[in-house]
Amino acid sequence: MSDLPDTNVLEVDNLSVSYSTEGGELKALRDVSLDVPRGDIVGIVGESGCGKSTLISAIIGLLAPNARPASGAIRFRGEDLLGVNDDKMRALRGDEIAMVFQDPMTSLNPVLTIGRQMRDIQYRLPDSKAEKNARSIRMLQRVGIPDPESRLHDHPHQLSGGMKQRVAIAMALMMKPALLIADEPTTALDATLEVQIIHQLKRLQEDIGCSILFISHHLGVIAELCDRVAVMYAGEVVESGTVREIFHAPEHPYTRMLLACDPGAISERTRVLPIIRGFLPDLVDLPRGCVFRDRCDSAIEACSDKPPLQVRGADRLVACHRAGETP
Asked: Domains plus CATH for the chain?
């Protein structure tokens, strides 16, 4: 990874993406904006269907065939990725932008050894097989794999789920990318392994100096790992700011309700877990005004108009007519 200026590694600016479906145009993302500063870990949270996967696919240039051309901008180190050709995107993937996927069981090729797959990641380097193996062993050591020399000869089925995910992280960070995208990398792991992977990822991020875009449903993981967080709902960013601001003083009703649904926030025994009533809106036939209005306990007449994304303090953005009011 070459030296980067002291600025944002990634800037998503008013990004909109739609899909052509039999039922009409599905508006998966609408005017999404977020920044990933150099050396920071930025989290994205939200219910299933909020647009997290579409956002990732747009960033790495792997949108589904029925996606309509995206509007807005995705600037990686100052260059708009929406304007680059396929060859340039292929050169960026794995080298400058790497990704850790959700399921470690399917991230690795089951018929190839770990060593072969780690050498394949280094295909752009002119080094010999021995040099690539040595680099792979060093990387496996850094992610906490015991006896890494022998693991190069193992197939994925010979590793535990936690070890598979460590290998996936090692492969993603092999080329020291400027940006690592982690798509719910701890979802398939138990709680103990989840904590280990989070701490390992944090240490590696500090050592390598990359930025991380971390997607998760797990609010505790976001609070533990991230510097900043963006809250998405139904294809829009409804609130963003530092982790401390969002977790200690959320201003958007959806953020407050999302945090209230975290089992870790329940202080008294109960048979009924808190939920957010209602359902996500139809992204083909969006309601007028605030997209969260029908599920919001704080809705007022003004919510029939779409709320602007308000600047609240130095680094805080909130899309709500009632931002700043005491809940």
From this structure: 8-96+177-318 (3.40.50.300)
